[in-house]
Design brief:
40% of the residues lie in helices and 11% in strands. The chain is an alpha/beta fold. It has 2 domains: 135 residues, HAD superfamily/HAD-like (Rossmann fold), CATH 3.40.50; 69 residues, Orthogonal Bundle (DNA polymerase, domain 1), CATH 1.10.150.240. It has a 6-stranded parallel sheet. Helix 8 links the parallel strand 4 and strand 5. The radius of gyration is 17 Å and the shape is globular. 42% of the residues are buried. The structure holds 6-O-phosphono-alpha-D-glucopyranose and magnesium ion (MG). Its cofactor is Mg(2+).
């Protein structure tokens, strides 16, 4: 019988690669320079959120208001820190089991796409030799409306040539889960069900995924 799922769309940061750690360090350096409070909890609010919006999250947390030009400069500076940190990225930063999972999915003939808000996504994929695992790569540079808007996922579906209802999204951020569901797609949360309360199912280990159940859109529970 034909499977319902014909494409798997992945977020990047925190789903394929632990770049969320490097994003954290980049923001932390910027925050420390200004004496702003920034911790893991504030960082969670920056997950899946574009660069400028992430800065707003940090400024709001500290009750700081700045002119637009200064915010642009700060976001550019954080990105320079992030890109510098990316020089150290290596295969230990790849989510365990993610590459094997991508290989298995692609071997079934199902399309794979990357839908990341990060404008650095192509650089990260190239640095780790992961570019060839995706039929399409959509980034923050290709869209107008960031997650939780469904735009990035709808464009990903279009680029891999699959209807939204035949796609499943893997996401680690609440905004991404909301975007996937708004796109009319199935969604698997990567991380804890406590953080991803809207995700119909969550995983923390790719090797636990029953691929047949996933492609039949029948993945249930929260396998650990
Ligand atoms: C991802 C990350 C966010 C980051 C955003 C923009 O969604 O989860 O933490 O702010 O990408 O990344 P960029 O590399 O373009 O600054
Ligand atoms: Mg993410």
């Amino acid at each position: 019988m034909e499977k319902q799922i014909k494409a798997v769309l992945f977020d990047l940061d925190g789903v394929i690669v632990f770049t969320d750690r490097y994003h954290y360090l980049g923001w932390k350096k910027l925050a420390d320079e200004h004496g702003w409070a920034f911790d893991e909890e504030v960082n969670n609010g920056c997950r899946g959120v574009p660069r400028m919006e992430s800065l707003e999250v940090i400024l709001r947390h500290n009750g700081v208001e700045l002119p637009e030009a200064e915010k642009e400069e700060l976001a550019t500076r954080k990105n320079a820190y992030y890109v510098e940190l990316l020089k150290d990225i290596n295969e230990e930063d790849v989510y365990p089991g993610a590459v094997e999972f991508l290989k298995k999915i692609r071997a079934t003939g199902v399309k794979t796409g990357l839908c990341s808000s990060s404008k650095n996504a192509p650089l990260v994929l190239e640095s780790l030799g992961l570019s060839d695992y995706f039929d399409a790569v959509v980034t923050g540079a290709d869209i107008k409306n960031a997650k939780p808007d469904p735009e990035i996922f709808l464009l990903g579906a279009e680029w891999v040539g699959v209807a939204p209802e035949n796609c499943v999204v893997f996401e680690d951020a609440p905004s991404g889960v909301a975007g996937a569901l708004a796109a009319g797609m199935a969604c698997v949360g990567v991380g804890s069900p406590e953080l991803l309360t809207e995700a119909p199912v969550t995983i923390t280990d790719y090797s636990t995924i029953d691929i047949d159940a996933l492609l039949n859109n029948q993945l249930t529970g929260s396998p650990v």
